[in-house]
Amino acid sequence: MEHLPSWIRRHLTALRAVAVLTVLLGLVYPLLTTGVAQALFSDKANGSMTGHGSALVGQSFTGKDGAPVRKYFQSRPSAGDHDPTATGASNLGPEDVIDTPARKSLLTQVCARSLAVGELEGVSGARPYCTPDGIGAVLKVFPGRAVSVNQACPAVPFVTSYEGLEVECARPGEDHAAGRTVPVRGNVTAVQVPADAVTAGGSGLDPHISVTYADLQAPRVARERGLALGRVRALIGEHTTGRALGFIGEPAVDVLELNLALDRG
Amino acid sequence: MSTPVRERPAPEKADGRVSGGLLDPRQLIRALPDALRKLNPVTLRRNPVMLVVEAGAAFSTVLAVLGPSLFAWAVVVWLWLTVVFANLAEAVAEGRGKAQAATLRRARTGTRARRLTSRAPAEWDVVAAPDLRQGDLVVVEAGEVIPGDGDVVEGIASVDESAITGESAPVIRESGGDRSAVTGGTRVLSDRIIVKITQRPGESFIDRMIALVEGADRQKTPNEIALNILLAALTVIFLVATATMQPLAIYSRSVNPGGPDSLALTGDGVTGVVLVSLLVCLIPTTIGALLSAIGIAGMDRLVQRNVLAMSGRAVEAAGDVSTLLLDKTGTITLGNRQAAGFVPVAGVGEQDLAEAAQLSSLADETPEGRSIVVFAKQRYGLREREVHGARWVRFTARTRMSGVDLGDRQIRKGAATAVMTWVREAGGHPADEVGHIVDGISASGGTPLVVAEKGRVLGVIHLKDVVKQGMRERFAAMRRMGIRTVMITGDNPLTARAIADEAGVDDFLAEATPEDKLALIRKEQEGGRLVAMTGDGTNDAPALAQSDVGVAMNTGTSAAKEAGNMVDLDSDPTKLIEIVEIGKQLLITRGALTTFSIANDVAKYFAIIPAMFAAVYPGLDTLNVMRLASPQSAVLSAVIFNALIIVALIPLALRGVRYRPSSAAKLLSRNLYVYGLGGIVAPFIGIKLIDLIVQFLPGMS
Amino acid sequence: MSETAAGLLFVASLIVALAVVHRPFGDYMHRVYTSPRHNAAERGLYRLLGVRPDAEQSWGVYARALLAFSLVSVLFVYGVQRLQDKLPLSLGMGPVTDHVAWNTAISFVTNTNWQAYSGESTMGHLTQMAALAVQNFVSAAVGMAVAIALVRGFARHKAGTIGNFWVDLVRGTIRILLPIAFVGALVLVAGGVIQNLSGPHEITTLTGGAQAITGGPVASQEVIKELGTNGGGFYNANSAHPFENATSWTNWFEIFLLLVIPFALTRTFGRMVGQVRQGYAILAVMGVIALGSVLLTNAFELSGGGTVPQAVGAAMEGKEVRFGVSGSATFAAATTLTSTGAVNSFHDSFTPFGGMMTLFDMMLGEVAPGGVGSGLYGMLVLAVITVFVAGLMVGRTPEYLGKKIGPREIKLASLYFLVTPVLVLAGTAAAMGSERQRASMLNSGPHGLSEVLYAFTSASGNNGSAFAGLTVNTPWYDVALGLCMVLGRFLPIVLVLALAGSLAVRSPVPEGAGTLPTHRPQFVGLVVGVTVVLVALTFLPALALGPIAEGLS
Questions:
Q1: Residue numbers in B near A179 (CB within 8 A)
Q2: Which position among A78, B100, B632, C471 has the lowest Cβ density within 10 Å, counted as fewest Cβ atoms?
Q3: Model-level pTM?
Q4: pLDDT tens-digit map of B572-602
Q5: Please, are residues C116 and C477 in contact by the beta-carbon 8 Å criterion?
Q6: C68 and A201: CB-CB below 8 Å?
Q7: Distance to chain B for A158, nearest Cα, Å
Q8: What residues form DSSP beta bridges with B449?
């Protein structure tokens, strides 16, 4: 080995280093950790499983038809259909407001979800920047005219005029790129559907909803199950994880555990 | 040949600030042809920042020819002006040196030399001065010009060195000792000397001086190189930032097809002229334009103080000096002991002692003796008088006393032991008190002279080394600058300590030999400190060579001048302090203008980015905080500001940033506020003001 | 308590925790890197490696050893991915495609941990453990080694050597990273992060649907992913995934882990150069920038600017309920300030200015506090540049920590500073100039531009997070971003080692009243200013056409 050129010796050393460290860090360390973890916290190390999936992994409480099962609290929307083998977020930006034939804009998705949740819970689903029919309220303004781009003809535009210009519906196939994009806020002030109900989480598996969203759903679930609202509220309280130490994170309601508790009666 | 070559050293201002020459507007005009010549890219290659500007200017000229518009042409003109202004700065700085070089040259041309053909002083031939070789012996008589640098090997003469020093008082040059060096181009006023030429042809002191003041062999100093690298890196970054912006701009335009093309942005991206404008505004043109002028002006400021630096490196090192070695005599003290007090023994009045001391010194022409007379007059009101019938006793090495015999009154003054012996011989019994007074004076660093009458000691004269006025303050200032001062003296440690305390130096080296000096320098340097010193004798040469900044006195030997890297033509050892200040000023000016240059960019972005992109993203007009009239006027105003600021800062570059000795932290704070914060704010105001005018030009809306 | 107040307390508690461990942990690392003794396990390792641990290396030898180790690592990680179907625990996954495997190998060896792949559907357990997690350790140890080598350059006088790479690598790994990782992994498991070797198993959901619950050695990888500022997640959703980051307090713990080494290394630095206060000055620079960024990111996210967040009423898209907006914003700032790149929320859906903050954090050059090691050496290079300009303004040839900053040092520091911006801007321009590469953008308009800019910033800065809408597992992006990662990692490392070598041989200049003090608030403010201004000037045109244009619309 001594008689080899130094660069070869160097790479042989490197090779041995990679091999040795791989055994130590790639096998011994994770396997040892696994062993100790399994011995000490076997429940948590294996995914905090309940009878119907993991308490940490959000799932959808919809029926085969895709409609919400009304006796259950509903999860947040998921960008990946609650599929643990395809996790992730929508990655749509804050100014993603114009629908394309390929996909709905994030704004329209929010508006549509808001409308649907409002309907389900019997409250108004209206939001700023949303049309009453749950579409992003966005105009493309050209010299001389304005188009409500997310409302394809023959829909009726959500406003009739904008700064003196008549607002038209969007003729399919027309290119609106040259227009100035103007989202229209509207005059909605009291929003009743909470933020987490209309947005997808980061993982696509968010197991929690906000306490506000749980409270919004409580009357429906109580009605469906014939339970007293107070009982449902109490269960929400039981399955709410508050802020750790009083300030870490946000209070969150574990939906699967709450639903399981309801099922248990 | 009594040409006053340059202005006398600019007098120091009251606040201790080193001042520089003023900028005469005529200098700008005179330098203009040179500035235009420097547009040649080959010369400009030394300055990468300005080379980029020139390339940009050339490129936009082509664009303006192909697609002429008033806006484009206006930008092109100002881009070229930016380069010209930069060259102008350098040319002005060089121009000052050239004027001095011309006078110096006149001193040299036409000199003939009488070269001895043998040792016998009678045989010579006449040759032109430039033909002299090392080792030649030349004879120079009154009225003749010394043909080359050398040492006097025979004779003594008074020499007018005003050609070099600007000082009209003649100096004495004699063979042997430390006053043997003569400089070519100076004129012998009296007597006749034989000079051994020590220079090689073409390398005389004057030759080097000419080269130096012209900046011909100016090499970049390490610090200048480092700064150039940093500026080049910044240039590359902004080059990349502007070049890569183009695809982004094209994309942004393509996703916002509404709205018309503008002079700044079309479907093909940002227009060439605007892109070049942005680049030129962002790269550090201010410091890039002034960097070499700062260096040349730094050397020039030294020359104005009659100091010749053999290299820019030495000037820079001067700023870094942390230990200053100063010879006591002539630098810290006036060089002569002076009477500072009369201490009578018990039973003798002060007035009596003063009177006796004065009497004994009336005929004493030594500086000490004169000082006794002066002191007696100032302090005791004793006027000088004619004394009749006095027999003066001169000082001899054997008696070590001097004095006067006035009738039967005999007065002696002198070294304690000698005078005491004289008193005892006359039957007197000096009290122990005398011994105590003598010891006390010695301990305080003074020299005691005992005064006695026959058989009786009257008292002791306290002779003192007198520290020059204002030295204490200067050393305190040095301390604040972080410079340690060390006094070098041949005195014994006791005396040395007393003077060191009085002068306020940090340390002293007593009973110093040349070897001690050298060892001290080495020791300081090993600790990482840079050492500056002055010297004139041949025995100083090794120490001068070893020190980082060695200032040789012009009156000194050739060996000393060869060994040092600066020569002080005034032979004023305290000038070291000014040299350090100039060195610091040079670095500060560079740093300040670099900071200013970079800080300027903030405002330029606020002018140009909205100008380019507000058409596609109207929201970006929010960034137009200066509310500039139109995109065109915004771009043009930024370019004009960028060019004008160079001209505006030429005086500062030549004069140097104001330097006040104070701690590094305070200096930094001050410069940061002025050049950092000022650098951010100034262009906002400047660009806005220019825009207020420029917007009325046609084609600006 | 309002979310803002809770968020501020969250940040404050992190600061307290980091402050508490700063001194003991920094001192511990100082001992690790300066102790002359090798323990028994290390001696065994050196024998296996065939290296003499007491042989000091010049900077050139040090750099060559580092590069050799990294090259072999890349080949090894590439090989394991390509052959994973032939190895155990593959969970039936096929070989990773060549360009994704190359990109991933580069990404993990360079401490970037950019995920061009989706973990749960691409990588088997053995690949995750033996290839990826190993690099999580050693790439971090390499970064620390380089930082320590640079510090030695400052600390040593007239020395020709800067340490021994193999010793620094081994010690950093087994004395610092491994013990913390082991304990940290168990803490995470206690919080609900999984640690097993199972494959995905089907369960029946409450409403009768099917769901595949995945398994794997997650905690052991999660902990080193944060501690080593790596960021490559076990899952595509990274730290947003409940199995990687189960609760709000594991979220706190993970942020703490990713900040702890970079901040504590400043103490190590102070100890090694013999002036603790110099370490505190660097810490203060990092701290001021980091705190500023965390607070601004929180402010932008909590105020929820932008059309969709306005419509929603909060910037909740891409964020998990248990972390909340603030817990997500703080994580986002921390992960981009360090070169971690783990995400617990998706930056692509952040408010325009919140997203810009994450971009800007990375553009700072990953220095506040930066990646393990890389943050410290990056910051020291910036300090050198600052000292140069400021030092001139006090009228002396600039010096830092007693070492003169001459042409060679400035050349190396300037080149270092050039690398990242050139890679980012050239890469972004190349992608934006091509119709085909633009097609990878999910979002349109300025936000699409931000996605591309973010990708090249993240890769060149070795961060690894993403505006994940951009489809990057195409051959072009895999290769281009891979090149950015390699050059963005190893060019600076070689330059830093050269700088270390050049500083080590210099003899120190004693400090005096004329020396620029580099431990005072004045200098701290100056470095902060220089860093922020230089970065802003470099990237403003690009930012103006991306997030600023979006935010001001």
A1: 258
A2: C471
A3: 0.88
A4: 777 887 888 888 899 999 999 999 999 999 9
A5: yes
A6: no
A7: 24
A8: B461
